Amino acid sequence: MKTWKSAIKASLIGLLGLVSINSMAQTNWPTAPVTIITPWAVGGLADQINRAMSEYGKEQYGQPLLADNILGSGGAVALTEYTKEKPNTHKLILGGEGSFAIAPLTMKVAYKFEDFVPVINIYSSTFVLVTNPRTKVDSIPSLKEYIAKGKKIKIATNGTNSSEALQSAALFNEMGAKYQIIPYDGANEALIENITFEDAEG
């Protein structure tokens, strides 16, 4: 727990320190509560990290950090709304490859990467493929056997234009599988559906 909190605290200081330096020499920043927009669902990894950072905002900087979740299109909705606002050093947003690299390739977006100023990389995550135990797929060889049966694979992902959806498509295209990507409003919802999916069978 101590290591986890230390990592969060270090990320927080990096984020706010760089914002302070680049905010027109505003040495008394922040002068009001700071809102950090999370373009993903409540309960997901990004949301949990955002809320964990909020615990240290008032202690370290005298102002609270407020989490605001705005969902839709892998982050594109939140970023679009954010670019319409007047620049504000007290309102920041989290973004990732889904928002900046994938969404512009699959849909028309009203923003570009140059509209934003990168501050700090808060975290990185690893792509992990999990299955319902009833499929009896627990390894790459057993996955290949499942695909060889000609069965269509349904893939639950944490949203449209997410990196998980892109990586899943790349993997199953390479394996020659029949598949359908089903986007959900966040990783938690996708995992619950995977566990309770009635059609999961070997």
TrEMBL record:
Keywords tagged on the record: Signal
UniProt signal peptide: 1-25
InterPro entries linked: BUG, Bug_dom1
Family from the record: Belongs to the UPF0065 (bug) family.
Protein name: Tripartite tricarboxylate transporter substrate-binding protein
Organism: Pasteurella multocida
